[in-house]
Amino acid sequence: MPRRSSPLILAFVIVALLFLFPLHCLARHFVLVLEKDDLKDNPSPENSDDQFSGDESAGDSIEWDEFGDSDSKSEEELDPGSWRPILESSDSFARNFTPESDDGLYFSGLGKLINGVSKGEVELVEEAAKEFVVASNGGHAHAQSVLGFLYGLGIGVKRSDSKAFLYHSFASAGENMQSKMALAYTYFRQELFENAVELYAELAETAVASFLISRDSPIVEPVRINDGSEENKEALRKSRGEEDDDFQIMEYQALKGNAAAMYKLGLFYYFGLRGVRRDHAKALSWFLKAVEKGEPNSMELLGEIYTRGAGVPRNYTKALEWLTLASKQKHFSAYNGIGYLYVKGHGVEKKNFTKAREYFERAAKNDEPSGHYNLGVLYLKGIGVKKDVRVASRHFLTAANFGQPKAFYQLAKMFQKGIGFKKDLALAATLYKIVAERGPWGSLSRWALEAYLKGEIGKALLLYLRMAELGYEVAQSNAAWILDKYGERSLCIGESGFCTAAERHQRAHSLWWHASEQGNEHAALLIGDAYYYGRGTERDFERAAEAYTHAHSQSNAQAMFNLGYMYEHGQGLPLDLHLAKRYYDQALENDPAAKLPVTLALMSIWIRKNHAGSFMVEIIDSLPEMYPKFGAWIETNIMDEGNATIITLFICLLTVLYLRERQRRQAVVPPPPADNIAG
């Protein structure tokens, strides 16, 4: 009998696995929702804060530098100690410095560190650490920052959280912005919000100063290289820049005179989208060609380019001409640009706050977030209007929920100082963090992604680990995924040589945990799996349940299913069949694709309720002990990772066989008496 049913069981398992519902790992879009309790009672605009004065000079503050200044600082000036020179120029850059100098040692060490992890040469990493120590002893803040990074993870040195914190503190005092980010994130996780706000406010201000465009796209698009437990091939394909087939087709169409393709190419070069390097000269060229072909969308961006002086000398007269033409074509963000010119008095006869407000209102009425933001600044500072903190708050909230980063910055200041809202340092820190992560130090993700696409996994891992330390959730999940997916091939460097399996698992575990704290539901699920199966940590059902509960709070159907299973079997949670059924039902409600595993799980509960103490229940309860060996086979031959669903499938397979046998027996009915037949 068992031999006869084995093919059936195997076939059923394979079919069931094909229908297992997918995991979703994208963090949710940030939406700010406030209640009446968050607002101050009858806030007095006059007493809100002395820094928000109503004179005209307020219009010259940093918030109005929508298009940047001609003397805007470079990335190296805004982010001292940036890794960019080495990443762009490799060892050649370091040769420009005296080898014995602290700067020479720093850049030499940085080059060796990156080359060492790229090529898997542990000796280079150890040499780099020694050079950082020498430079650090001389008070070199940037070398201290890298040492903080190395000690925090145990890369080429013995791991030490206390030394990591100490080196980052020294580096932060020396104005290393990446160490400020690392410290701010440390304070943020520890809920020391007063300390976190102080650092994040400074970082956010630097980030705002680095914004180069009115719509403030990120320096680099954050690309998640994994989709659940699989590589995100589509996102990676779209990040190959000029090497992407779609880009080359678009370029071919543009060269053939397609105006829409010209405009799209201009966008790619102007904003630096999909892995394309920013090139304002190329952007200007394609926008001008598109306009010549009658393409209207380029007009607004030409107005912005001439306002900013991006790739051309600033020319406010031309900027106003292009923006006016764009506004006539119903490009409503152009109204925002014209309003800006009136606020600054550029390209027009003189400053005119009334006209500026009118243009901002036109933009806002057409859901242009920057229009809402600028109106918020007008009302907050009383520029051309009566000062009104409530109206300003409403506009900032609208702009923030459209994703306008400067609106986050203004709201953070208001919550920090208690202007218009009740003072809330936790929320202020969260909002400042969003803005700070748009700073120039975020460009590391570009180099990390490029390295990954080139197959330089060790280099990609190092750069994602650095960004993970700074608090970037996408980098945390990318680094963890590389460690899990590539294993030894990740060229993970540990305290002594390559990472041991334990070091690699523990590092991935820590990264997934950090990512889960920041809303990555897939990360929370993997943490639960790690505790449930004892991967990289001791097996702990209670902590697994905590992690699954966290993922459940983010509406993760797989986590709901796993919680149901744990309630059904009393693992880390009280045995409760009613709660088990509730969680199974919730899993199905949140993801219809879960119908098959949920149906099988409910059959298992039915057996427990109706045949308690039976031989079948004993078999069901013994399956977890039988699972490890068979689970290893499943992982090797069918799946990339196991989960509680597999156990339930086997439980329910036996249930199906049991019910079929029972139905067969009941179907055997004794023949009726002979006389009835005759009758």
Automatic annotation (TrEMBL):
Keyword Transmembrane: yes
Protein name, entry field: DOD-type homing endonuclease domain-containing protein
Residue numbers spanned by region Disordered: 40-86
Positions of transmembrane segments: 642-659
UniProt feature coiled coil, ranges: none
Family under the similarity heading: Belongs to the sel-1 family.
Domain of life: Eukaryota
Signal peptide: 1-27
Pfam families noted in UniProt: Sel1 (PF08238)
Compartment annotation: Endoplasmic reticulum membrane
Topology term for the membrane: Single-pass membrane protein
Keyword annotations: Endoplasmic reticulum, Glycoprotein, Membrane, Repeat, Signal, Transmembrane, Transmembrane helix
SMART domains in UniProt: SEL1
One Gene Ontology cellular component annotation held by this UniProt entry: endoplasmic reticulum membrane
GO process annotations (BP): ERAD pathway
